[in-house]
Amino acid sequence: MKLRFFSWLVLAFAWLGVAAGFAQDPKPATAPAPTPTIKAKVAGMEARPGFFPLYWDAKAGKLWLEISRFDDDFLYYDSLPAGLGSNDIGLDRGQLGQERLVHFSRSGPKVLLMETNLAFRAAGGSAAEQRAVRDSFAQSVVGGFEVAAEEGGRVLVDATAFFLRDAHDVAGVLKRTKQGEFKLDLARSAFYLENTKGFPRNTEVEVTLTFAANSEPGEWVRDIASDPTSLTVRTHHSMVQLPEPGYTPRAFDPRAGYFSTGFANYASPIDEPLVQQFITRHRLAKKDPSEAKSEPVAPIVYYLDPATPEPVRSALLDGARWWNQAFEAAGYVNAWRIEMLPDGADPMDVRYNLIQWVHRYTRGWSNGASIVDPRTGEIIKGLVTLGSLRVRQDYLIAEGLLAPYETGKPASPEMEKMALARLRQLSAHEVGHTLGLAHNYIASTAGRASVMDYPPPFAQLRADGTVDLSDAYAVGIGEWDKVSIAFGYQDFPKGTDEPRALTGILDAARAHGLIFLTDKDARPPGSPHPQVHLWDTGVNAVDDLSRMLALRAAVLARFGENVIKPGRPLATIEEALVPAYLMHRYQLEAAAKSIAGTAYTYALRGDGQVPLTPVAPAEQRRALDTILSSLSPDALKLPESLLKIIPPRPAGFPRHRELFANHTAEVFDALAPAEAAAEIAFAVVFDPGRAARLVEQHARDAQQPGLDEGI
Fold this sequence. Notes:
By secondary structure, this protein is an alpha+beta fold.
């Protein structure tokens, strides 16, 4: 009993001691350091004022960003001012990234850069409807920052890590193109201050990024890099104020030839489509819309890359200026200008629409891209990329057609003339994309009606068997191009029923045989429309295949050493032989579309168009017979006189992918050209989609050829 009492006594004293300890005053906690002012924090740093002010800390190698606009939307996008130079990889100098509508949002000491999901909206709906849509679909956080200083509602954040990152997904592209695993090496990356600038409506930041290989680099990387294990590029970040109010979106019409931007509108009435679409176009308005001809409020101005040499420079300027013909036809005066990029201007600056001259290791496509306001479809910056090797390929084609290097005679100027004519057309074509226009691949059947088609050089045989290239490419803008510009850019007088007026433009064009069909109708090898192709000529593809086969036979009959300059290795005759021997390939693909073919239009209910017209059985059989004629031994063989003068390739001139396949170990393979031509023909004739249509059309109409007949 005494022991138990003693134990309780000890516990009581212990409890009292603990209680006494709790009762004592705690040690005062260390107060958090006050957040410094921006002025104090940036003391000694280099200030770069602009849309979002920047501060460069040279000692620490950090870039600080001042933010005063919270919850205000602006545009953010990345680009690639210095690329890899490989068409196959696809990371070109000047390449634009994806535009995003973003805003800064603050939560305590954190600042988030939030991207708005514009694919789903409640346009015109109540605040509650808009909130419901916003919360139903995932948003994205593009970047996160810690507040390091603040004053007067403004905050300062360290943006170094945000800018020194792989924003353009260079490592991802290298992986997807099977060029190896690459990782960003921050130790070999830094800010490129020369192009890190601020302007009242945009802030531009550029960085040098080095990617280190974590695996064996791929072939295409080894082709272009001084060290394929270490790839250094430059990435550019643009933060841009949204355009001023006043732009009115124009509804998309599939018959008009424009690219579109759209969204699902969950506030649209139940009897209206959920998806709403607008065309993409620049802002352009007349000073006086009531006048048939008027100056614009502000012209559209494009600039040419000063790195473009002559005579290419003049050709590109000429071709781009063709668009003024279309704007004049739409009632504008001086609405379209092309100038040289001013000294000191940054090509990546959003304020400059640019035509740039880009070099690659291998030839490839040119393109026209745009930065677009995703809310409305307004084009903010147009960027044309023209591959510099294209002009050399056109020159090579002309050499093969003309065989111009006769001993003792001066070389013909026709090769350069044709190549520059193609550049004018190419310049106009790619600029057209940056005006919002899509390809129109049926235009070639209406007398070269659009620069937005793909034209081959139109060559004709003279009576003496030589080739005439005087009309190789069209000059000037096409009639369809005037229609499309009128549809997209016409500024109608007040009170005009705009939808009706726009429909009237398309109706009038259709009455003159001008319609629009595009990539989805032309590119698939099994596509059915008999008049929609790439690189074809003429109204009837079968007729023009016959014409081209005759031209090809004449060219091959006189093909020899005159296609190369004196002093060149005779083995390089093969370079010119490839495009000459296969000059009919695209016209053959075009003719094949008559087999199980069906003409159609983008018909709307009530617009009077005929939706479908099957190709007549006799025309289908004529197409097949003409294609088979291209596979006869006489059509496929090469002259013995040519085979005798093409030796194995000498040292310093290795084989490359622009040549025919070779199965004869160095000696020129005389059967390889025939193999290539036959593969092209049979691939399109027996395309799975075409074969299936042959079965179906014969089942519906026994007069139509079937698959058995084709085989």
